Every structure is written in C-alpha cells, then in structure tokens.
Amino acid sequence: MLTKDLLQYKIQNGQIHPQFVNPTNNQLLAIAEQLIAIFEASLNESRATLLESSKHIIDSTPGPPIVKRGLEKLLLDRTEFDTAPNEELIAFRHNLFTETSHLLSQEQFADYADYQHKVLQITADKSPMEQTELSAKLYADLPSSQPVLTFNTLSAERLLHRYNAAQVQGLLLHCNTLTLKLADSMTAELRQLFKYLRFNQLLSTIRKEGELYEITVDGPLNLFYKTKRYGMNLANFFVAVLHQPKWELAAEIQFRNKRSSRLSLDESCGIKPISQQFLAYIPEDIQLFQKMLENKTDDWQIRPGSQFLPLSGDFYCFPDYQLVHKSGVETAIELFHPWHQGHLIARLNTLVEQKDVSLILGVSKELEKNSLIAEALETSEYFSQFGFTFRDVPTMRTLLPILNSLV
C-alpha cells in the first residue's frame, strides 16, 4: 500500500486521475529489476543496510524519485523483518543501566566532559567489549538493526502493475462512497468478488440493472468506527476487482480540508491482476464457526456464502454463510458489524414485506449502543423471529434456536 506522500495524481474539473506508470517501459523495468535484486539478496542483512542499498538505486538511476520510492515501499511491504523481542539483550541492557546508574549516583563531576568520561569508563568496566561494540549491542533491537527474515519476490512487470494498483488503493483510503458495475455473468470470478467483499466485512447495497450488477459500498470517510481498518479492507477489495473481465468503478475521493473529486476507472486502465484468485480459501472465522456448529449438532452443515438472495425492489443480498439442514431446508446468515449501521436499517426496512426469503440476521452488540439501532431492532418483527446479536463471532446458543425453528 502507498502512503499519501507517495501517491501521484492530478485533479481536473472535479475528476481525479491517478498517474500510472507504463509497465512495459524498459527504463522502469530495469530499475524495478535492480531494486528487486537488492531485496532478494538482503536475507539476514539489517533494515538499515537494505535501505542504504535501495537508496543508492533511487539516487543513481534516472526518473522521478517518487516513483522509485513507491516501488521501494511496495517491496518493503513484501519483506519480513525479525521483530521478536530479544530477551537476552533486554536483560543485558537493564542490568547494565541499573549498575551504571547506581555507580554514577555515587560520583561527583567537575563538568559535563568529566561526566561523559566517567560514563564511558564505567560501561567499559562493566562489559569486556570495545565501546563501539557495546553501543551496537545496546541498540541491536532498534528497527534499523532488525535483520531480514524473508522476502516474497515477484517479477519487475508485476511490481509495476502492483504500483499502479497501489495508486488506486491509496486513493480509496480517502473514499466517501464507491460504486462498482459488473456484468451479470455469475462466473466463478464474480462469485469470488462477492466473497472477498464479505470476507473483508464490507457490506454493500446490491442492485440489478438490466445486465449489470450495481454495487455501492460505503467508504471509510462515511464511517465513525475503525475507519482505518475499514479503509484498508476497501483498498484490498480493489485487488479482487482486477480479476473481473469487465468492470466500472466510480468513487468519491476527499482529502482532508479539500474538495471531493470523482475517481472513474474501468478495465481499460490496463492494470493486470496482482494476486492469485482465492478459490479454495476459507477464512479463519468461518472455520471456527464450522467447528462450533459441528460440535453442537450434526443436523446442519455450513459453508461460506456463494449465491445471491433476491430481495424486494430489485435488491440482492450476498450472505456471509449458507446453511443446509439434513432434511434439505436451506437458510443464510448475514452479519452486521459495528460499521454497518446504515446498511442494517436499510436491510430491516427491506425485509418488512419480505415473505419468501430465508435470511437470518446477526447484529454486533456494538450497534445496539446506538439508540436508533436499538429501537429498530426492538420494533422489528422480522428481527424478533430471525435475528440475534453477537460480540466477536456468532455463538450456537443464540443461533441454534433460530435454525431449529426453521424445521
């Protein structure tokens, strides 16, 4: 992900235009290859040494430094450093500082130079190493000294496509709303896109317009709860959009104290997919939920949501989970997290007249702290029959009575 200072964009007539690089530019490809080679060779080197080597490439090659710093940032995101606490070093430093402090408290100093001399003398007495060695050891766990453990490499061309995608992702961190239009193909890619939407806990409004699905997602600026985490999830969602054969994206972007601008993109922007499809991936929360259900009953089987549920008014729901009873009865669960306040009210209103859908609503207890939400849940006849609340994850104690009522 790119930080705001590394984003390149122009604003003209209310439209914001990311400044993409050409992923086939030979000069850029050569620079990307040099940076990748440095990171590939950095195993066990310190962060400071790695950054010094990459800075040399940034300073000595042609082209805008901001682009090269952006490439470096993306490579750092793929690098794992040893950040584990060094207990031996912590104990050494604590003992040395304690004894040094005790000895210094018994000394008298003529001036600051005398103080410095005594400190150096005491630390030398307490450790049989050179002063430069001692200084290096004392601060060996600072971020600059952390060694490289692993680096997830990639090709130069893919790095440039990732850079272009990161330009869009960086803008989406400052998004009010996002609207996405997709062809009604119901391909595996489209189903995976909606799974990715739900896995990132991004609740959306889904409407069918002719041959297109129109998906509207709140942006982080539209929320008052954990906006940073939500913004990261929304930015990550763009990675899944790139796997769609045809798509149109429109977003309202607003930086602090600035006027909002409109971002408009489609598949013609030329950014290739930068990640693998996750067709077989099952998130940890679903695995946990599956185990909980298996431990309580053999009558129900659960799987991640994979099909749309039609609702009144040409709206659709893509649930978090789908459950099947051994008798053949099917139902679905849609979860509403603390940042889904507006969508919950809309869903309750949609379900007032709904008679032919089997949808269970799970609502975070955090939402009940809002008086409007609490009142809506209290007065909803649908929620009283097919709704439950949860803290972190749904529990069988609240869910099983609803499931059993369906059979």
Description:
Among the domains are: 54 residues, no CATH class; 105 residues, Alpha-Beta Plaits; 122 residues, Trna Endonuclease, Chain: A, domain 1, CATH 3.40.1350. The mean pLDDT is 84. The chain is built from 14 helices and 16 strands. It has 407 residues and is α+β, with helices and mostly antiparallel strands. The strands form four sheets. Strands 9-8-5-7-6-12-11 form a seven-stranded antiparallel sheet, with no helix packed on it. A five-stranded mixed sheet has the order 10-13-14-15-16. Strands 1-2 form a two-stranded antiparallel ribbon.
Strand order of the largest sheet: 9-8-5-7-6-12-11
What integer is the average pLDDT?
84
Supply the CATH architecture of the domain at 284-405.
Answer: 3-Layer(aba) Sandwich
Write down the overall geometry. globular
Distance between the termini: 47 Å
Helices and strands, in N-to-C order? EEHHHEHHHEHEHEEHEEHEEEEEHEHHEH
Question: What is the percentage of strand-forming residues?
Answer: 15-25%
Q: Write down the CATH class of the domain at 284-405.
A: Alpha Beta
Unreliable segments of 5+ consecutive residues: none
Proportion of helical residues? 40-55%
Total number of beta strands: 16
Largest sheet: 7 strands, antiparallel
The count of helical stretches stands at 14
Structural class: alpha+beta
